[in-house]
Design a protein that fits this description.
alpha/beta, FAD/NAD(P)-binding domain, D-Amino Acid Oxidase, Chain A, domain 2, 2 domains, 8-stranded mixed β-sheet, 6-stranded mixed β-sheet, 10 helices, 19 strands, binds flavin-adenine dinucleotide
């Protein structure tokens, strides 16, 4: 077998599709439900990094990611790295707004030639429904970014490779080096794989320890996200820039189907600041922030809950946010973290560059149960 992929989040499934289409014989081992950790907890934004440029400068982070929305759009059109034809985004655009028109030097930055084609100030008739309220007197920008429904995305990626995605938590003692590759001792089967590809998200840290891999190392960056259930009828996909004092959106809002209505999911500064807060403190803080950012909507009856989740990434000096996807080969093992959903095409390039050409032959069949799709955190019991 060419490669055993450990972890069935976006990284593992994307790589399984890329490798399958190029003739590699692979299996994916997923401990729980597909997408179960970060991917299904993510906001699903495929973005070009402009939210990292709110200091008014294009940085390494904002530029490495700038081309990703177009690469994803080609996939959605059926012609990109991975065929996602037929997958409909939750929202085809993403927005930025502020309740005042006074955005300081960001106003001229957003209008500058360097950002042409990436951001556009909207006229009131073009506003999404949530801003079409006479009480809103601010400014709205449209970004090139869009939002995917992560369960739909994972289902589309699972379809072509479902017969090789198994439910199994790989235990460190089940892997040993063999003939320049590795041997996996799985229940009912011994497999030889030329490559072991670790896409286990936060689970990769323990596997690195047990495989004796000292570098790369993993870092975890915590978030405390906010879930808002309310009866407001419109979805919203927007960064709030009202009164920002740091180069980061005050609130990053996405909307997800929840029964007959919409659940609003809040990240951005509120989720970073919320790490130091208890659930109840963050719920109170979120209600105040919603009232400040969207004062034309009543938040008194909204039900607010919170969700703690870590981002798993390659270790950076000072625990900084990585700018790019990460893949490195250590002997037969490839260690891979996309670091962002948006950066998965970049991850695919990096992993393919590390692999030898495939060898002909069928993919092995294992006596393990097939892995099914996980559930988004807000629909878990
Ligand atoms: C709250 C939040 C919001 C985010 N929003 C965005 C966004 O809007 N846009 C964006 O671009 N990025 C976003 N991200 C980042 C993005 O979600 C992640 O970078 C991406 O989902 C990571 O995917 P992954 O496949 O590496 O990891 P995961 O999705 O965590 O998948 C890893 C899988 O490995 C499995 N596993 C673990 N250990 C083992 C083992 N020993 N054996 C077998 N399987 C194992 C787990 O069960 C899991 O299913 C967000 C992240 C968070 C936390």
């Amino acid at each position: 077998m060419d490669a055993a992929i450990v972890g069935g989040g976006i990284a593992g499934l994307w790589l399984a599709n890329l490798l399958h289409a190029r003739g590699y014989r692979t299996v994916v081992l997923e401990a729980d439900g597909i997408g179960g950790s970060q991917t299904l907890a993510s906001q699903g934004m495929i973005h070009g990094g402009l939210k990292y440029a709110l200091s008014g400068n294009l940085t390494g982070a904002s530029e490495a990611i700038a081309g990703m929305p177009e690469r994803w759009r080609r996939c959605l059109a059926g012609g990109g790295d991975v065929d996602l034809g037929g997958l409909e985004p939750l929202s085809d655009r993403y927005y930025m707004f502020a309740t005042s028109t006074a955005l300081g030097r960001l106003t001229s930055f957003f209008a500058s030639r360097t950002l042409r084609g990436r951001i556009r100030r909207l006229e009131p008739p073009e506003y999404p429904a949530a801003f079409a309220d006479p009480a809103f007197r601010g400014v709205v920008y449209e970004l090139n970014d869009f939002v995917l429904d992560t369960p739909d995305l994972l289902a589309a990626l699972l379809r072509p490779v479902a017969d090789r995605v198994y439910r199994h938590r790989l235990l460190p003692g089940e892997v040993t080096p063999a003939d320049g590759g590795c041997e996996l001792r799985l229940p009912g089967a011994r497999l030889r794989a030329r490559r072991l590809i670790l896409t286990a998200g936060a689970g990769t840290g323990a596997l690195l320890d047990h495989l004796g891999i000292a570098s790369p190392r993993m870092q975890l960056r915590p978030l405390h996200q906010v879930l808002v259930r309310h009866d407001y009828p419109h979805p919203l996909y927007a960064h709030c820039l009202t009164g920002i004092r740091r180069p980061e959106p005050r609130m990053t809002i996405t909307s997800h189907r929840d029964g007959d209505g919409w659940l609003w999911y809040l990240g951005g500064q509120i989720a970073g600041d919320g790490v130091a807060m208890s659930d109840a403190e963050l719920a109170d803080h979120a209600r105040r922030e919603l009232a400040a950012c969207l004062p034309w909507i009543s938040w008194e009856r909204a039900g607010i809950s919170t969700l703690r989740v870590d981002r798993a990434e390659p270790e950076q000096t000072g625990g900084r946010r990585p700018d790019e996807a990460f893949a490195a080969a250590v002997g037969p093992t490839v260690v891979a973290w996309p670091t962002k959903l948006s950066l998965v095409p970049d991850l695919g390039d990096k992993v393919l560059a590390l692999l030898d050409p495939p060898r002909p032959g069928p993919a092995p069949r294992l006596e393990l149960p097939r892995a099914g799709l996980g559930r988004v955190p807000w629909s878990r019991p």
